[in-house]
Structure formats: C-alpha cells, structure tokens
Amino acid sequence: MTSTIEPATGREAACATPCGALRRPAALVRNIDVSGLVDSDTGLLDRAIFTDEQLYRQELRRVFAPNWLFLAHIDQFHKPGDFFTTYIGEDPVIVTMDKDRRIRAYLNSCRHRGARVCRADEGATRNFTCTYHGWAYDLDGKLVSIPNKDGYPESFDTKDWGLVEVPHVETYRGLIFGTWNPQPSPLRDYLGDMAWYLDAMLDHDDEGTVVVGGVHKWVLEGNWKLAAEQFATDWYHVNMSHASALMVLSPTKNPKNEIVHRTGRQFLDPNGHGAGFPVHAKNRFNAQKVHEWIDYDALRERLGEARVEGPLTDGHATVFPNFSYLPVIGTIRVWHPKGPDRMEVWSWTVVDKSMPPEVREAQRLYNLRTFGPSGIFEQDDGENWSEVQAISHGFITNSVPLNYQMGIGSEREDGRHPGTTSELYSDAAGRAFYGRWRDLMNTPAWHEKETR
Ligand code: FES
Ligand SMILES: [Fe+2]
Q1: Contact of 341 with 332, CB cutoff 8 Å
Q2: Which residues form a coiled coil (predicted)?
Q3: For residue 152, how far is its CA from the centre of ligand 1 (angstroms)?
C-alpha cells in the first residue's frame, strides 16, 4: 500500500444527504418486520427474502446504506484524478483521488437533473463534467462551472450544489470501503475477528497486494444473498457441484478423498461475516507455479501455523454484506444487487506485489480458469444460484422454508482460530449472516432517525 494515499476519513462531510433535501413522505418508506422470515435458532429461512420487491427496497435502506461496503482496491489509484466508478447498493459512486492524494467518493449523480457525471468505468480526469447540460465538478466534488449561470436567481450558490459525498471512506490492507452512515464504527472494528482471516490473503509480506488485469463484470439471475451466503458458509457444495471441475484440475487421482473430504473450520461473526477453510496441507489447491514460489516457512513465521494451515490453504469468505473472496485463488468480488432477482458480479484478481511477473501471470490464468466469468468453478456456482432463484417466485414454492440446520449447536471457541468457529461442513456462518441481516432489517437506520 502506498503510504501517501490517505482515505478521506473523519472529514467535515458528516452528512450523507445534501442540505435542503426534501422531506420524504413516510408512506414511501414503509418497513416490514422480518422476524418471522429468518429463524436463526432453528435454522429456517423464508424464501420471500430472496424475491420480495418491498423487502429489497428495505434492504437498500437498512442493509446497504448504513454498512461499510467495498468500493475498490487502492492499487487502482496512483495520482490525483484517477477514478473508478462503482455502486453502494444501487447508488452509483465515483471513487477518486483528490489533489491531496486522499481517496474520496461521491454520488455519481448530477445535482441538476440527476444524470451520471461520470459514465466511464475508470480513468483519469481533472473534472467530472455532466454530459446532459454541462455542469462540471472538481475532484473535491465542488460545482465549478455551469453554462448560463446568469439565468439562475441570486440565491443560487454553487457551494450548495456540489456532488453528494460519501461521508466515510477507510482502507484495510489496500481494500477501500465506504459508507453513507454519518457515524459508523471504525472499519477495523466492523471487521473484528474477520481481519485475522482476511490477512491470510492480504498480509503475506510488507509490500501488500496489487490488482492484476482489469475488473470482470457479469450478470447473474439470482438474489445477491445467495452468492454472499455461499461464500460465507458453504464448503458443503464443493464435492457435488464442483465434482467435474475438481477432476479436471486436481493433481491427484482421487480429488474427492484427498482434497474435499477433509476436516476444517468455519468462522462466523456477529456482524454477519463468515469464512470456511480446510486445515490440511494436502488441501492446497492453487497454481503449481504460485505454490512453488510461496515461502511457507516465512509465512508461518509471519502469520502463524494456524493461519497457514487454515485460511491460507484454501477456502471461502464473505465480509458482510456483499464483499467476498477466495484467499488462495486471489479473487475478490462484490455482489452488486440489481433488484431482488438479479446481481452483477464484479471481480478483481489480487496478487502479492512481491510476486515476479511470471508468478503473477500464473495466478491470473489460474484465477481465470477457475473463478473468472467463464471459470469452471464459477459457472457451477452461478448455475446453482440462478436455479434457486428461477423457481422461488412460485406461490407454494415461495412459502416452503429453506433448511440451514447443519451444525446447529457446534459453534464454539476452538482455541486455535479467533472468534467463534464451527465445523468445515456447517451452516453456522449462514445462520449468523441471516441473523445479522434480520437485525439490520428490523432496525431504523440513521436516515430514518433524523426525520422522526
Ligand atoms: S443533468 Fe447534469 S447538467 Fe443537467
Ligand atoms: Fe463453489
């Protein structure tokens, strides 16, 4: 991570909505009590949480807006004006580096008639100029130029019409997160014990990670939670869903016995994060060239035996709500919600900055073959989520609950891995994920408290 890059944490912009915002009638933001839809004690889930339009709107208000969400990797910004456009929930945001080299994020919507002021995926600029009527904003989000300014009343002050800024942006080991919440807990506190597991991918040495290649984006017909949940809690599907892919890539003759049928642990967190991993060296399942380059003794020294023979071996993880990664494959991704029935997957490949070019290339290709948009594992997963979603709107189907009961009662502190863990094959992190989701859905967010 470049030390001169500073996120815009704690800046004066403590308000996530612009001054003078209109007061929205309460009828437009009716909330549903979801207690009856998620029973994390008995491990039952109502499928309405994947299909209901009103619940989806509530999710945008109460799950996406108040939480820390992943925006970009720090390696995407090297000089002032570098930018990347993404989403917080369904809100488009521009992430950019200002003249003081701070990372800042703005709502990508013109204050005039609302068009996006930046339509490119990424690039470098001095100003963001709206292509509708030409209002232009600088890297501080200030409105710096408008055509026919004389036509506006004297009370019009450009200071009042800057881009709406994401009030808090923080980084953790090169990952940039932002939140609309004006008073969030610090990102590090939000991650809690999850940081220990994240470090298995991001903290191999002092140089940190960089992005290799671009950002892959593809659309899946399925609710975003199906993917986030699987990455939090589901090693169970590997043996069945990925059987053929394992046969293709396995260095052994019997991948099911030697790779999949192993013990391991699953981490679950009260904030909804989750991670699972086998705990046996034979589970290492990465590109041979990468495997040979890695200095496992140095890693043991730095990260400890439990982490090297755990989350650094293989596995899956989700930082609540919609950021997931696979520590060994080096894929990090966001499941962007696009309505209850659709998600857009955005995926980056990260590698150690210290990796020589040929090892980076080996990792990039391995990532593409396995979890790129046409990767042999990725397609198995996408197919499953679309299959679940495709039938969930049936009236009877929708009212038959789903089972998340595996490993009920197995949650404990295991003395080796931080936080609470369960068995490798377990729904424990899934229950925690949906428990957190339910609590957030039932809790008024800051923007509701302000208007009371
Ligand atoms: S909508 Fe941007 S200038 Fe009019
Ligand atoms: Fe999978």
Answers
A1: no
A2: none
A3: 14
Among 110, 129, 152, which residue has the most ligand 1 atoms within 8 Å of its CB, making it the best to mutate?
Answer: 110
- Hunting for tokens 């369960």 — which residue is that? 422
118 lines ligand 1 (CB under 6 A): no
Distance CA 238, CA 449 (A): 43
Question: How far apart are the C-alpha atoms of 176 and 88, rounded to whole Å?
Answer: 12
Could you report the per-residue pLDDT of 345-384, keeping only the tens digit for each?
Answer: 999 999 999 999 999 999 999 999 999 999 999 999 999 9
Angle between helices 428-441 and 224-233 in degrees, nearest 10: 140
| Mutation choice for ligand 1 from 130, 131, 156, 164, CB with most ligand atoms inside 8 A | 130
Contact residues for 401 (Cβ-Cβ < 8 A; gap 6+): 44, 45, 46, 47
- DSSP readout, 64-81? ITTS-EEEEEGGG--STT
Name the helix (H) or strand (E) containing 41.
none
Q: Given the structure tokens 């589970």, which residue do they identify? A: 283
For residues 429 and 422, the answer to whether their CB atoms sit within 8 Å is yes
Q: Is the CB of 291 under 6 A from ligand 1?
A: no
pLDDT digits (tens, 9 = 90+) for 301-339: 999 999 999 999 889 999 999 999 999 889 999 999 999
Q: Among positive and negative, which fits the CA dihedral 418, 421, 424, 430?
A: negative
Question: DSSP labels for 115-148?
Answer: --S--SSEEE-SEEE-TTT--EEETT--EEE-TT
Q: What are the residues facing 123 on neighbouring strands?
A: 83
Residue type, 41: D
Q: What is the pTM of this model?
A: 0.94
Other beta carbons less than 10 A from residue 416's beta carbon: 14
- Which ligand 1 atom lies nearest to the CA of residue 117? 2
Residue 407 CB neighbour total at 10 angstroms: 22
Question: What does the block give as tokens for 70?
Answer: 């992943």
110 CA closest ligand 1 atom index:
2
